[in-house]
Specification:
Helix content is about 70%, strand content about 0%. It is an all-alpha fold and about 230 residues long. It has two domains: about 150 residues, no CATH class; about 60 residues, no CATH class. The N and C termini lie far apart (about 75 Å).
Length: about 230
């Protein structure tokens, strides 16, 4: 039986990453599965090609992945692939606290157990290394996803400005225009909505600039009411 100080010392060697999302992982569903996961996942559960272990709930994993898709809303196959990688890595990270708990539980068992203190410390240290590796992988993938999504949005913004300018020119000349003929993937409704939004933003900025100039004007009386 380990003392409380020994248990605390072992627990301090493990790095608990992404605990806030750990509820998405159901982990092993049987006692036998928990014991197998605690021992075997160190060598294949956290590094296997398939993110979901046989002892885990596939439906819970699909819900976990769907939440990532809803959050990041990928628009291209590459973005979708990166979001899937995020979900897979996050699922493995969420498993680590459960594995840590299994190791500590086995180490505190009063009955004879192969999980003696030294192997338990080694197991926790190994889990800590896996946790650090997966955390780095998660943040690297997230950074890559955000980068390519930002590039896509900037490209779409430029294309929308160009399309809006061409549509306006044709409208002024009374000439029909199909954006697809210039390779634009936006519908006329999308272009019109963009044009209206940009007009409103420019109008708002004009009003703000007018108010600022009026406030700073030396001819303005100190108690003169501001323009609404």
């Amino acid at each position: 039986m380990l003392s409380q100080s020994q248990v605390t010392q072992m627990a301090s060697t493990a790095t608990a990453i992404n605990r806030a999302n750990s509820q998405h992982s159901t982990g092993p569903r049987t006692e036998a599965g928990k014991q197998r996961s605690a021992r075997n996942a160190l060598t294949h559960g956290l590094t296997a090609r398939t993110a979901v272990l046989p002892s885990e709930d596939p439906a819970a994993f699909e819900q976990h992945r769907r939440q990532f898709l809803e959050e990041y809303r990928p628009a291209t196959p590459t973005e979708t692939q990166l979001v899937h990688e995020l979900a897979d890595t996050g699922w493995r990270l969420n498993r680590i606290p459960l594995l840590e708990a299994d190791v500590l539980s086995g180490a505190q068992s009063p009955a004879p157990s192969p999980e003696s203190p030294a192997p338990a410390v080694a197991a926790l240290a190994t889990l800590g290394l896996h946790s650090q590796r997966l955390s780095r992988q998660f943040h690297k993938t997230l950074e890559h996803l955000r980068e390519i999504q930002q590039e896509r949005r900037e490209r779409e913004e430029r294309d929308l400005r160009d399309a809006a300018a061409i549509v306006l020119l044709h409208k002024q000349k009374g000439i029909p225009y199909d954006p697809a003929q210039d390779g634009f993937v936006f519908s006329k409704a999308e272009i019109e909505a963009f044009t209206q939004r940009r007009t409103r933003v420019e109008h708002t900025r004009g009003v703000e600039q007018f108010l600022y100039i009026e406030q700073a004007s030396p001819l303005r009386k100190p108690n003169a009411p501001t323009t609404n």
